[in-house]
Design goal:
By secondary structure, the chain is an all-beta fold. A five-stranded antiparallel beta sheet has the order 3-2-4-1-5, with no helix packed on it. The radius of gyration is 13 Å and the shape is globular.
Amino acid sequence: MKALFVIDMQEEYALSEFEYYPRQTTDFHGHWRKFTLRVSSDGINYETIGTYEFEESLDRICIKLSEAQKCRYIQFYQITGNHNYVGGAELYFYQNWE
């Protein structure tokens, strides 16, 4: 299962962390298992921030970046999702206010 989706925030922000809330189903359908996070200012040239892997859980997942990334576009490349599709309940993005 591989999927790609891109968030366009309409302007640049200094992304410092994000939270992912999985679907609250006990069969874990669509839960993110492994994905790569990439960011871009122009939507063409992306920088890979990291690859993350998680166990099945209904808990929120919080990713704090080692340093804020100035970007407009956030790309999630899903490498593995449960039951052959990828879903989620909520995504939150936080910027560095310094």
